[in-house]
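Data card: per-record layout.
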Amino acid sequence: MNGGAPVEYRRVYVWEMPVRAYHWINAIALTMLCITGFLIGHPIRIAYAQEAYQQYWFGWVRFLHFASAWVYVFNFMARLYWGFVGNKYAKWTNFFPLKRWQQQEIVDVVKTDVLQVKMHGEISTGHNALAALIYFLTFLVFVFQTITGFALYSSMSSSWIPRMFKWVVPLMGGDASVRFWHHTFLWFFVTFVIVHIYLAFYHDYIEGRGTVSSIIGGWKFDRVESGEKPK
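The structure for this 231-residue chain is written out next.
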């Protein structure tokens, strides 16, 4: 309610099917990568056998990690493409806060959502500028994980793609160093997932515009300003 008058909303188609498909494929692949990556870094014994050849559970862990990585790579490439041909909410220009209003929105979102020292101002229909910037940084971390992952795989693979990144190992000081940083950034993604889920439900509750359901159906709700007819 606003001054006794009901607040009207209009439906806006924000997240197209390719964006939603990318999100959920990415979520599944990333979850598998984090779980299997943790097990590779900290293997546990879940079965007992006299000889190694009598059990292969760790081999399956590694296989799932590699398979999930390939899914993640091709899914990311599809998202790169859609960043050029998708609607205005999917464009890559949204992820670079070069405009003054985007930079101001980052400050406003920090004050509102993080510090909670001000009330909500204008609410973005797509990603707000801070979320878009964080997603872009996440993309960069993913590229780093892809490069270091292929670099680690290059010593045991004859495939030309992993071997393209063989030079990364000596550049970073050896296998141990590459493995350390590759495993460390696993926790970046774990932290990101936790914060991402929390903020999605937080904004859904605070804004009431279908933030969570929009990544399933694609639709959000925009508030109709006073004197404007809903479309």
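Known properties of this structure: The first strand starts at residue 9 and ends at 13. The CA atoms of residues 107 and 188 lie 23 Å apart.

See the next section for split statistics.
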